[in-house]
Amino acid sequence: VDFQEIIAAKRDGREHSLSDLEILCKGAADGSIPDYQLAAWLMAAYLHPLNATETADLTRAMAESGERLDLTGLPKPWVDKHSTGGVGDKTSLVLLPLLAACGLTVVKMSGRGLGITGGTVDKLSSVPGFRTDLSPEEMKAQAAKIGLALTGQTPNLAPADKTLYALRDVTATVGSMPLIVSSILSKKVAGGAETIVLDVKCGSGAFMKVREEATKLADGLRSTGKALGLNVRLAMTDMDQPLGSAVGNALEVQEALDVLQGKPLNSCAERFRELCLSLAALTLEASGLCGTHELARAKAEDALASGKAESKRAEWFEAQGATSLDLPKAPQRLVVKAEGSGFVHRVDAEIVGHTVIDLGGGRKQKTDTIDLSVGIEILCLVGDQVEQGQNVATVHAHEEASAQQAAERLLQAVVVKPEPAAPNDLILDLR
Amino acid sequence: VDFQEIIAAKRDGREHSLSDLEILCKGAADGSIPDYQLAAWLMAAYLHPLNATETADLTRAMAESGERLDLTGLPKPWVDKHSTGGVGDKTSLVLLPLLAACGLTVVKMSGRGLGITGGTVDKLSSVPGFRTDLSPEEMKAQAAKIGLALTGQTPNLAPADKTLYALRDVTATVGSMPLIVSSILSKKVAGGAETIVLDVKCGSGAFMKVREEATKLADGLRSTGKALGLNVRLAMTDMDQPLGSAVGNALEVQEALDVLQGKPLNSCAERFRELCLSLAALTLEASGLCGTHELARAKAEDALASGKAESKRAEWFEAQGATSLDLPKAPQRLVVKAEGSGFVHRVDAEIVGHTVIDLGGGRKQKTDTIDLSVGIEILCLVGDQVEQGQNVATVHAHEEASAQQAAERLLQAVVVKPEPAAPNDLILDLR
User: Fold this and answer.
1) pLDDT higher for A224 or B109?
2) What Å distances lie between residue A31 and A10, A59, A164, CA to CA?
3) Per-residue pLDDT tens over the stretch A1-41
4) Nearest-CA residue of chain B relative to A171?
C-alpha cells in the first residue's frame, strides 16, 4: 500500500484499518515515510479526528513500533503512573517509592521537561550520581530486586510516537485529542505495566487550561485504555496554582524528601502530600492490593508515616547510583512580600512556571541546558489570608538581577484582594 | 509571524491575508519553511479550500516569489497559452507560430511531460538542435525579433509553486481546485503576458475526467484570472479520445509540421487542425487584434493556408537552434487491425497514453528518460465506420515485443460495436 492512499483515506474522512496504522507507525519509526507525508496525514487526522477504534489501534501500533519492556517474572501487580504535566508536579518522587513500599512493582519511563511543565528526569538529575539512563535489562533487574525502577525515555520505546510527537509540535496539530491520547498511552503500553494511574492536570499551569478539555482528555484516556485491556485509573487534579511549595528541580526534590522524611510542612507542601496519598490510595485499590478505598488510604498513610516509603526511596536512590543528597543550591535568595493585606485569589501557575524558566530552571527549546538549583518556593495558597509585608514566596536565583525580575513577576502571579476567596479544590475527579 | 500560526489559521478555517500567503510563498521559495510545515498547510488548505480572494492572493504571491518576465518594450498584445494537458496534445506547436504570424507577441514557458500527458518541451527536444533552455533575456530578445519565444520552466520562475506542486504530488493534495488554479495562473502571471488562452481538457486522457470537474476548474481559472487583471479566455475541449492522430514526441512534431505545411491529413489530424484554428480565432479576438470572431477565424485560416504560419515556424525553429527536421524514427512498425466490423464507440485516450508510456515514450517518474521516436498513430475517430481488418492504428516501437504488447492493448482502447455511434464533440465550451 502506498502511504499516499492512507493520507487520501483520512483526508476524505474514511476509517483506517489497524494495518493502515501499522504501516504509518512502521514508516514513522524507520524513517521510510518522509516527514512531509506524515505531516499531511497529521493535519488530515486533526481535521477528521480518529474514532475510538482507530485511536486504540494507533496506540497499539505506536507501542509495537519499537522495543517493549517485558515484565514477565516480576511480582504482580505491575504499576505505572503518568501526569500530563504541571508546575511543581514532583508527585512521582513520593508516589513511586510509597507504592513500591506497599508491595507493588513500579516501573516508569519519565521525560525531560519542556516549557512550564517540569520533567521527573530533570528533577532527579539534581541528585548527585543518580542515573536516569537505565537499559531495559537494568530496569527489569532493579525492579525484580527492589520493586521500583525509573528511567528516561529510551530511543527505542515507541519510536513512531517520538517522530509523530516532534512533527505535531511544529505543524499545529498538537491539540488533537485522539493523537494526545495515543501518544500518552503508547508509551505506557510499551512500558509493560497493567495498572496505569493517570493524573490529568487542569488549569493555567497545565496543557489543558479548562475543565471541559481536561474532561475530554480524561474520557479519551479512560476509554482507549480500556479498549487496550489496561487497568486505567484517572485523577483530574488542580493545576491553576502550583502543586506544593517548590517549583524548580533541586527544590522539588527537597520538598519530596521532606514529605517522605516526615519533616514539618507548610500548607502548600501539605497539599502536595495530600495528592500523593490520594493517588497512592487510588493505585493501591486499582491494583487489587487493597479491597476498599479506605483500606488503601490507610495503607498509604501508614507507608508514609512509618518511614517505609522513605526507606524504599533510599534503596531506590542507591540502586540508581545516588551518592548523596547534597542538592545544588542557588547563591541568591530573595523574599517576596505581599504588597497589601487581604485574601489570596490566585497564584497563577503559568506565570510561576515562566518565571522559573526565566531564572534558568526550565527549557524554552529542547536543546536548552537548565540550572537545577534555581526556582521558587510559594508560601501561600488560594484562600489564605495574608498581611501586607508577609512572605508569600522565596526566589532562589543565580544572580541578584534575575532574582529581582522574578520577584516582580511573582507579584503579578499572586493576586491579593480585600474580599475572602474560596480555596481551589485539589482533586477535581478521581476514579 | 510564526508559520505555525498560519497553519493553525487555515486548520481552523480562517481566511488568510495576502501577507500570510506572501510569508508562505517566500518560505516555500527560499526553503526557510520546512516541507513538513508546508505539507500540513496544504492538507489544511485542501480541507478548508481557499476562497476566491485567497486564491488570487496565493497566485500573486507565488508569481512574485521569483523572477518575472518583463515584456515592456515588446509590441502588444502579449499572449500566452496553456493546456491542462492531454494525450496527443501538440496544439502549441501549430498555434504559437500561427499567432505570431498574425502579429501577436507570443511568449510561453512549457513543461516536460509526466504520466499520460505529454509536454511541449519533450516534443521539441526531438527536433535536432532545438534549445528549450532560453534565459529570460534570450526569451525577450527573441520575442522582440520574431514575435515568438518558448522555453522550459526556469527554476527561478514562480519557485514557490515549484515547491508546493512537488509536495502536493506526494501528500494527496493535488486535487484542490484553488491550488490547481493558482498553480496554473502563477506561472502565467510570472510569464508576463496579458492575454492568456487556457485549454481545459476533459475526458479519460485528461486530469479532469468529468465535465463537472472541468467546469469547476474553468470557472476557477476564469474568475481568478479576472481578479488578477488578466485577459483570460477559456476553451474546454474533448480529451476522451486522443487529440489528432499522433501520440508520441517525434510523431506529434511531424503531425504539427504536416498541418503547418498543408500536407494531406487523415480525419484525426483534421480534427487537431480544427482545434488549432478555433483556439487561434479565440486568441486573435481576445487580444483585440480582430474585432469579431468571424474576422479572427478568417485571419487564422489565412495564416495557416497561406504558409505564413509555417514560415514563422521555420523562423522560430532556426532562432532556437534547430538544425534540421530529421526527426528520430522508431525501427519497428506494427499495424493494428480492427477485429470486427461496426462503428467506433470509444478510442480511450487514457489507455493510449499508458501504452505510449510503456513503449518508452513517456515518464512514470520525473527522472525517467524517454524514447522520443516511439508512439502511436491513431487512424479512426469515435463515430467512424470500420471494416474488420481495417487499419485503426500504427505502433512505432523500439522492439518487436513491445510493439506487439502495445498493439494488443490498443485493441482494448478502440471499442467497435455494431450499432452506430455519435462523434465526440471537439469543443465543449469556448468563451
Assistant:
1) A224
2) 21, 18, 11
3) 689 999 999 999 999 999 999 999 999 999 999 999 999 99
4) B37
SS3 B197: strand
> What is the DSSP track for A174-202?
TT-HHHHHHHHHHHHHHHT-SEEEEEEEE
- CA dist B193 and B79 (Å) reads 5
Of A56, A59, A55, A82, give the one whose Cα is nearest residue A235: A82
Peptide bond into A77 cis (omega under 30): yes
The pLDDT assigned to A366 comes to 79
pLDDT digits (tens, 9 = 90+) for B329-369: 999 999 999 999 999 999 999 999 999 999 999 988 878 89
Phi, psi angles (nearest 5°) of residue A225? -55, -45
* A367 backbone φψ class: left, alpha, beta (φ>0; ψ -120 to 50): alpha
- End-to-end, the C-alpha distance of chain B in Å comes to 42
b or e along B272-299 (b: 16 or more beta carbons within 10 Å of the residue's beta carbon)?
Answer: bbebbbbbbbbbbbbbebbeeeeebbeb
Handedness of CA B159, B115, A33, B42 (dihedral sign): positive
pTM: 0.89
Angle at which helices A35-47 and A177-191 pack, to 10 degrees?
A: 120
Angle, to 10 degrees, between the axis of helix B400-413 and the axis of helix B349-356?
170
The per-residue pLDDT for range B130-144, each reduced to its tens digit, is 999 999 999 999 999
Among the listed residues B176, B46, B180, the one whose alpha carbon sits nearest the alpha carbon of residue A10: B46
What is the b/e burial string over A96-113, where b = at least 16 CB atoms within 10 angstroms of the residue's CB?
Answer: bbbbbbbebbbbbbbbbb
CA distances from residue B120 to A112, A351, B87, B198 in whole angstroms, order as listed? 56, 62, 12, 15
Nearest-CA distance from A49 to chain B in Å?
13
CB contact under 8 A, B35 and A35: yes
Is A38–B36 a contact, with Cβ atoms under 8 angstroms apart?
yes
A42, three cell numbers: 497529521
Which cell is B193 given? 503576458
pLDDT tens figures, A387-408: 999 999 999 999 999 999 999 9
- Locate B375 and state its grid cell: 508512439
The answer to whether the beta carbons of residues B186 and A21 sit under 8 Å apart is no
List, for residues B213-256, the tens digit of each pLDDT value.
Answer: 999 999 999 999 999 999 999 999 999 999 999 999 999 999 99
SS3 A149: strand
Q: What distance in Å separates residue A55's CA from the closest CA in chain B?
A: 20
Cβ contact (<8 Å) for B7 and A171?
yes
Burial of A57 per CB tally in 10 Å (0-12, 13-18, 19+): buried
C-alpha cell at B110: 512549457
Burial class for A401, CB neighbours closer than 10 Å (0-12, 13-18, 19+):
exposed
Strand order in the sheet with A427-430: A148-152, A105-110, A78-83, A195-202, A231-238, A427-430
B143, B75, B84, B147: which is closest to B116 by C-alpha?
B84
3-state secondary structure of B242: coil
Does the ipTM surpass 0.85? yes
The angle, 0 to 180 degrees and rounded to 10, between the axes of the packed helices B3-11 and B18-30 is 120
Q: Residue A46: its chain B contacts at CB < 8 A?
A: 11
Least Cα distance to B286 among B177, B193, B196 occurs for B196
Amino acid type, B162: K
Residue A408 grid cell: 516582580
Residue B170 is nearest to which of A37, A47, A172, comparing CB atoms? A37
* Identity of the residue numbered A84: T
Nearest CA in chain A to B45: A43
Distance separating alpha carbons of residues B89 and B106, to the nearest angstrom? 19
C-beta atoms of A35 and B38 within 8 A: no
Of B4, B11, B37, the CB nearest to A47: B11
